[in-house]
Every structure is written in C-alpha cells, then in structure tokens.
Amino acid sequence: MVKPASSRAPAAVRRRPVAATAAGTDGASRDRILAAAHRVFRRQGTSKTRTQEIADEAGVNKALVHYYFGTKEALADAVFAAAAAEFLPTVFAILGDAELSIEDKVRAVVREQLDFHGAHPYLAGYVVSEAHTQPERVQTIMRRAGTAPLGVLRRQLAAAAAAGEIRRISAEHFVANLMGLLVFPFVARPLFEVIVGLDADRFPAFVEARKRELPAFFLAGLRP
Amino acid sequence: MVKPASSRAPAAVRRRPVAATAAGTDGASRDRILAAAHRVFRRQGTSKTRTQEIADEAGVNKALVHYYFGTKEALADAVFAAAAAEFLPTVFAILGDAELSIEDKVRAVVREQLDFHGAHPYLAGYVVSEAHTQPERVQTIMRRAGTAPLGVLRRQLAAAAAAGEIRRISAEHFVANLMGLLVFPFVARPLFEVIVGLDADRFPAFVEARKRELPAFFLAGLRP
DNA sequence: CGCTGGTTTAACCATATGGTTAAACTGACG
DNA sequence: CGTCAGTTTAACCATATGGTTAAACCAGCG
Q: Per the CB < 8 Å rule, is B176 touching A194?
C-alpha cells in the first residue's frame, strides 16, 4: 500500500495548498479523505461522483486519493461496506437477542431505526441505490454487515404462534415487513414527499409520529 | 425537433449496418431507441449508462440518439417520468376510488402491485434510485404520475375509525405503510436476498406468498 | 545537519464520453 | 427520373475523468 518516492531531475515551483496540513504529520489526510468520500458518495452515489470532488471536499489533491485508496472503485467499496455495516448489525443484534420478546424487539427496532435514519437521512437511500446499480458487490461486501438472525426469529415466531399470541408468519416476511415499514420513507423520501404532499420541513414530524404509529400497526398486524 | 440535412463535398464509403432498417421507413428507430433506453436505464441507472450502450441496444448509431432526443439527460428524464407513471397512477386510482372499501382497496393494491413488480423487477429500484441521486427532477417530473388521493382516503379512514372498524390512522401513514410493505423487497432486492438468505430463484415464490401475507398483515394492523 | 521514509503536490496521459456535423442513403411523389 | 423530406451514418471535437509519475516537502533520527 506504500508507493515510495524517488528523485531524478528538475521540475517546477510549488507552493503548499490553501490549508496545508504539512507532511510527516499524523495520518489525518487519509481520514479526511475517507470522511469526505462518505459524505460525497452518500449524497450523490458512486457513479455520479468524481474523485476530484472527494479530493476537494477533503481539501486535498486528487492524487492523494489514489495514493491512499488505489482506485475510486476500491474507495467506493469501502464506503458502501461501512455504510451497510452502520445500521444493519444493530437491527440484527436486536432481532437476534433471545432474551427479548417479539413485542420488545419490534418496539426496540422501530425506535432505534427511526432515530438512526432520522439522523442520517441519506444513508438508507444510498445503500439501496448502490445495491440496485451494483448488485454484484452486495454478495461479497455484505458479509461485514452480516445477515438477519432468522433461526432465533423462526423459533420465537413459531412458539408465539403456537401459544396463540400471534398469527403464523415466516421470519422472512417478518423481516421484510419490519424493514419495509421502517426504511421506505427514507429510501424513497423525495418521491414520498411529493406523493403525499409532505413539505420537507414537516418530514421530521412525520418520522416522530411514526415512532408511535409503527409499533401499534406492526403488533396489531401480527395478531391472529 | 427536426435538424435538416445539407450537402457539401466528398466523404467516405459506407455500408449499411448489421440489421439495416433502411431509411424513409416508419419511425421505428425512434421507438427502438426509447425502448432500449428504458431497458438500459432501468438496469443500470442514468449516470452509469453511456449513450453508446443505448445506441448499441437499439441497433443504431449514437448520433441518432441525439438526433431524436437531444441530450442524454432529456432522454433520461423521459424514461424516468414514464417509469414513475407506469405504476403509481394505478395505485392512486385504486386508492382514490370512492366506491371501494378500505379493505377492498388494500386487497386490490396488494394484488396489483405484487403482480406488476414481479413482472418488472427493476422498475421500482430504478425509480427510487434515480429519485435519490437526482431529487431535483422528482418535483417537476412527478406531475405526470400525480399524487396520492389523500382527500378520499382521509374521509374514508376517518369514517371507518369513527365506526370503530379500524384504528385511527393518518392517510400519510396509511400510504407509507402500504407502499413500504409492497415495494421494499423489490427496491432493496439484492440486499434483501442476502439479508434473509433467499436464493434469487426462490424470490418469485416469496412474492407469491406475499400476496396472501400482506392483506392479512395490513388489515390486521388497521384493527383497533 | 544530512539522510530517510512517509506524505503531498502539480503536471501529465490515455481514454471515455457527450455532443456536433456534414454527408449519404431511402422511399415517395410528381 | 430528379427532387425532397425524413433518416441514418462515420468521423470529429472538446472536455472530463480515472489514474500515473516524479519531484518536492516535512519531521524525526542518527
């Protein structure tokens, strides 16, 4: 990962850039580039983003981006994997906690996810968008984010159904329903706002209301 | 929209392409280009797509694409608008039909949408993806697809709630819930398959099962 | 104080890409 | 059969873009 320098002949005059971080310092530039890549990629997606934009956003030369991350694609992969790993494992952890009842899980996931996506508006849309245009990457990269703990869920759902507490439902549909209800408004936010005539500044209030709406809706939906 | 030709001097030798449709025929080329653009854009998204790819897919020269549609962006706008207008109006029509009960609407929308998206796997993902990376376009272009008939829905939901048939729920959440449950597996399909460990070839069966699962779940979710 | 290794930079390169142009082809019509 | 309008095409062009390179810079170390 280290391309050494060399020496040869004349060149030209150079001044340090606007806000020179100087050299030989800490690895701050690398972090700044990564953070900038996160912001830009999430906002615009991979293919619309130019490496130059990332460099600009990081206050750094374009070559430095390649120096640290090789190719744009490699950087994009890293960002995508990190983004997916940022919210899915939390969901999986809650769903996989054998100590929690179905109801507790639903309430916990709803609260946690609505808070999270409310604070990171572009994340879900970015991840889904990327997954759609580059489905090949998903398979490999998603390993970092793991998969849903269907085993635990299946047992729990079967037991609850046997006890007559809920309707019979497969773990797959349970997850699909939960995730769909949670992320749809965020993933499709620009469309959704137009469709239901929701002003952008009223969106947070909508999400807030959803924290009450969703547990009620979902838990009722499970009833026999 | 018509750029006339002219005449001047020598040029070079030309043979007709692989499958020459000849000139002076019908407006078949334009249609072929548009259809090709639909396929390619839906599969890859706007920014990943090269005009050359569309030309190839249409069996036509790249210049012809510009001849008929001006810019790539214009063509992309046309395709996006058409794609959104392909499934949203149907949903709005069902939801806005004052003759149908809430329950009938839910059953009808679920059946219709699952059939539709099952037959057009990339459409929802494409529309959502584009809306995410180009939110500016949504506002203007969505006019062709219209907006949800919230007025009718609100009255109906309020009446049903007053009659004690359902829980109180706003039309916005009603639409969000319905759309989220319906389109999520399609929009996030590559992710979803990995998350729940669903083989691609078992997806159609999952959708089929969903036709029974969703009305039950949704209608139960509305109950007081 | 000069060397050294990690860091940062400007300049460069090959190619891809969106878009333009002017010619050539085609069938219909008079 | 010549012309005309609508099509279709190869060749071009300017620019953007991802990536490379070799030099310069900087701090710490011996």
A: no
